Amino acid sequence: MRYFVSADIGTQGTKTAIVDETGRIAGASFRPSRLIRGPGGSVEEDPEEMFRSVTEGIREALDAASVEPGRVAAIGLAGQMAGILGIDESWNAVTPYDSWLDTRCEKHMPEIKAWGEERFIRLTGSPVTYAHGPKKLWWKRERPDVYRRIAKFVVPSAYAAGRLAGLKADEAFIDYTHLHFSGFADVSGMRWSQELLEAFGMDGDKLPAIVRPWDVVGSLSGQYALETGLPEGVPIVAGCGDSAAAALGGGLVRPGRLLDIAGTASILAGCVDRYSPDAETKTLIFARSVLPGLWAPHAYISGGGECLSWYRKLVSADGGEPLSYEKLSELAEKIAPGSDGLLFVPHFGGRVCPNDTDLRGSWIGLNWSHGKAAMFRSIMESIACEYRIYLDTLERLSGGIPYSGVHAVGGGAKGSLFARIKADALGLPVTALKNADSALQAVAAIAGFGIGHYADLAATAESFIAYDRRYEPDLSLRGAYDRLTKKYRMAVEGMAALYGNLKKTTLDERKIAT
Predict the structure, then answer these.
(1) pLDDT tens for residues 216-226?
(2) pTM (predicted TM-score)
(3) Which residue ranges form the domains of the chain, and what is each CATH number?
């Protein structure tokens, strides 16, 4: 039996596992992350803490697995996708990790849109959002002294892999599943775009080489062999983004499949075999799949799942411990679809897909009869309505590919009510996967494929899937959810206009005061 180390550097923390060649997780660990929130929308992480979560996680997972270290055949990593950090020539971090939750780069987004957002989308596959492009411009223009020290911009999975392998900046890389967020890539051509680099004065030499997720980028150095408990020289593959890993592990291996990644962010992804970026509605992000020739168009609410967590913490039973998700769902079960006329807008930090930096969260239609049950259900229904909007857009762009069902992974996939609401809103069956850590299993498959242990990456990833409960849509509710989605869309658009006008009024008042 061969084993693979798989680490996923997520927003809430780093999950690490020792995965055997059948996809079984033999041992695992979790190291929580520390988000450093500051003024002006700043959200950062300490790169050293991020890296230590990987090395310490490997040792903990190895101990838990009781596997002989010499049986570990390769290491793979996944990580947060839309944030970046800068390294110097010796691979030392010279910036904190600029999180995907950090909104300071917002001031540079109008410039990109003014240059030509549709052209930007056709090149990169992504609407202008809080990702690498605006973030790189922020470092260049707001922190020029730091920017000059940056030899390369890298993503978390590449940073950790490079540290483990003892790489230098001239060996820096980014795997192609991150390119849609990079801000300066021709995603279809899989190369850096000279057009975009010249348009925004970005230094191309600060951008890493583009590689495939399974490419071997180095081997474990002696220093970190001692720290992790693994043998020196274990091959390390490039890995991929966490959403890309979740998509592969969740079964997006052929056109016509959908995946609900129900985590901190709420993501609905599809699988298609052609590049058709969403330049019209600017909703879908056209990302490369890990698998060659396939694409994983998706859209997300940056804090969809976090809204449920926020509300759970907000309400408590008799001033004591927060109510459990199960108890809140039990209460919400008694409320009919539509939440007694209550609508919720889940975009607490602005809408990402399509991008609207001014929009914020809200309840609309509150009256004295509404309580915890309606409020909790309205949050779930808002996410389901967003998914319905995403699916409508995806069906239009994918050339008539029929979608037969949704696989669901992540913490939110555990709730039966939430899954049924999504099934009813989408009109499709939702199947929860038992693989709570499907991304970890997918990364293990990528690592094994990279060293030649597996001959077929798609078949291997699919063989690792274990299916749980299937939730059929109640077709009698289709009309109700059609109407609810229409009302939800109107509410979001109305709130967006309101916040836009409030911002304009505030700016006008400041001009008058000045």
Answers:
(1) 999 999 999 99
(2) 0.90
(3) 3-244 (3.30.420.40), 253-434+474-514 (3.30.420.40)
